[in-house]
Structure prediction request, 484 residues.
Amino acid sequence: PETGSLSIVVLGASGDLAKRKTFPALFRLYRQGFLLPNEVCVFGYARTEIDNNEFRNRLRGYLVPGKDSSPEQLEEVSKFLYLVKYVSGSYDSKDGFCNLDKDISQHESLKNSADGSSRRLFYLALPPSVYPSVCKMIKTYCMNKSDLGGWTRIVVEKPFGKDLESAEQLSTQIGELFEEPQIYRIDHYLGKELVQNMLVLRFANRFFMPQWNRDNIANVQIVFRENFGTEGRGGYFDQYGIIRDIIQNHLLQVFCLVAMEKPVSLKPEHIRDEKVKVLESVQPIKDDEVVLGQYEGYRDDPTVPDHSNTPTFATIILRVHNERWEGVPFILKAGKALNARKADIRVQFKDVPGDIFQCQKQGRNEFVIRLQPSEAMYMKLTVKKPGLEMATIQSELDLSYRQRYHAVIIPEAYERLILDTIRGDQQHFVRRDELKASWNMFTPLLQRIDKGEFKSIPYKPGTRGPAEADKLLLEKAGYVRTHG
Ligand code: BG6
Prediction:
């Protein structure tokens, strides 16, 4: 492992993302000994003019596990907060970033280990509009200057652009300042346990390798559902909609891992090469293979325009034009204010040819990977109904993580991804060409939605979304529902 001082700078430190995700993830890494007090300093940078103590107090509430925290837990939080230092400044001010650099340098001079190298990680928990100016400030005033090695890395969050053009513009602006190996584009779905399990499942199991193709698979569904609306985020959400918020990034990343070919090795570049290839094999999305919806009540949010057509639900069929997948629909479906909070991948197999049991009406073989909540994998299959008669029923082979691995605490996505940024592993981060290919896929549709050429169908909160989506899947994707 690398040694030397480690400075983690969270820019946008008083924002929601930083308080709810970034700092708690850092705290968990600290608690498990991945961030060592004798080398790390965590800097919070934001515009609000407050002092260290005030900042630490504001953060404390997000770190303590609950009202019934033990004195030891409270003590751990205090020890971590002791490593946190707040610097206030604006996102385009020379003074602010010079102050930040001064503080980082001071930390480095105090903590430097024998090799004297320094590691600087800048986490931009900020709106993308300020990425270019912040990156410029970091590049000009805050780079690691140690002759003895180390690195400077930046972490950026979505929304990374709004369409192909804006994403490419942003990539170019940042690309002029930092090399690709220094840029970590986070998609937190890539940090989820069962998403990371996907490659192992596919390429370490003889069961799946010969089955995973158009000869055996009828369709694949990747579904994200939330049982709450855009509460408090309507203003942001209305600018983006469900396709930019969930489908173009989270679901498409999952799609890549399900559909890509086997990489040459586990090297990040080999994996990302395959992801780009499969993205580039997707055919243009057809108008009649899309259903958009908006839940009733969405526009009651005062920050949402009265006539907004922004989709809060979408079902989109992707068609992959390659040897493995020709003819297999990949259904990406996401919605807010639906009947459940769940994300899963459902791989539905074709009917058994010449079915002597006539059991097909009971449902097809299906392999389900539940990403959340309660991580699980299960196979729906047909078995003989126990008893004297020769009858069949659908049953399940079930691997529930909670039962099987109850002693393991599954890490949070952000915790894992931040650790990767410190270790310099880009496997679970989105490369520039991947991002471009993903925007390329959705931009024509998004432009038409933005122009109002595509209508969102109203649906009642707490339901499965517009009935048109189920109809689409039945008619265009031959998707037969085997669950509630
Ligand atoms: C975020 C979206 O990226 O992911 C949110 O902006 C969404 O709208 C969230 O709620 C879902 O993440 P998770 O990990 O709770 O499924």
